[in-house]
Here is the input.
Amino acid sequence: MSKIPVIEIFGPTIQGEGAVIGVKTMFVRTYGCDYRCGWCDSAFTWDGSAKDKVQLMEPEAILNELLDLAGDNFDCVTISGGNPALIGESMADFVKLLHERGIQAAIETQGSRWQDWFYDIDVLTISPKPPSSGMVTDWEKLDDIINRLRLAGKAAHSLKVVVFNEEDFAYARNVHRRYPEIPMYLQPGNEDVTEPGDISARLLGRLEWLFNLVIADPAMNRVRVLPQLHALIWHNKRGK
Amino acid sequence: MSKIPVIEIFGPTIQGEGAVIGVKTMFVRTYGCDYRCGWCDSAFTWDGSAKDKVQLMEPEAILNELLDLAGDNFDCVTISGGNPALIGESMADFVKLLHERGIQAAIETQGSRWQDWFYDIDVLTISPKPPSSGMVTDWEKLDDIINRLRLAGKAAHSLKVVVFNEEDFAYARNVHRRYPEIPMYLQPGNEDVTEPGDISARLLGRLEWLFNLVIADPAMNRVRVLPQLHALIWHNKRGK
Here is the structure.
């Protein structure tokens, strides 16, 4: 059985963002990304700084570590990265193992790569990156991913765009106009992911700013604006 | 056409809590309640202090005021109270008017009264009140409401319990065990709804407390814990 490059396993904690905000979850963070976002809050998954902490793990071993950590105290596992969509068959096997135990699989990916196991994900969040990231969206690729999911008509999927500035907001509007029927989440960006101490006042200020942009814009009547609850509570601490 | 007792109409703003947290919405607040919760954040809807501000309005007049306030800058109207379920035929008419314009109707009620128009609500939140409220849940009535919705199989409904202390948390566990298939939201209570100024640090402290209770409890693997975003941003200000 092929292996998954894992850099962090932690929980149970509360999912702080997106479509299942507020739900108890375990986290499995995979190593490796095809992007290099300037403001990435998990740059250790691709910048080499934590390369010595990567473990190549079989799906069964990941499940065992989750069970060791939390017993029966979770029904959801969030697979994050990096970009977990870089991983093929071994991720399909891991998701199958979770489902055999009645555990939900939630995943977030930027929409730059397709994997057939997307069809099996319970909560699939596609999060294309806005201009402030420094990345360029491959719209043809994103269209292809959205269309495959649309045709399958079964994956619970949503879009999420992190917004740092007005240019990002305009990008989010374009994404929403391009895929109007897909539930869309906006999230204010965390402008300093290394600042120590309590950053909640800064983050709430950015949430209010984004609320006001959405409130004023009739093209955004159906999007949802959500903070990162984990960052409001646990700030920039890793593993929460 | 019969009339609706209205005490506040405002928006557009962002829905701060529950199943559609983060979505842009208008608010219509009805007057009158069959409950007297000790910690009610809208006691002016029933304690007589704002009785002179109540207007008896026809559904068409409410819709016109919403359109005057916001034009086409909303797709959702949240009907809150007081207890909007005290209102019969005129509320059915109002919801019909909204739907004719493609506007969603969201409503929150404590589950003490049934109305046939519940079937037509797009986002129906049933929020039974825990012991700290001083109210006593009529379980037979609540069962009846949940069962009618279950049999209809079409209303998008969820349960929400506000939690102030461990006794409330035990109550929420009971509600979740009684209706396990219904999406369930927990929300930390705001212990001082008149405190002026920035109350976000206090509210985030209570959110962390509730996160930790849920994280530790395998019976709560599927509930969702959410703050009141509007209170984090706009504090105890009315009309936001």
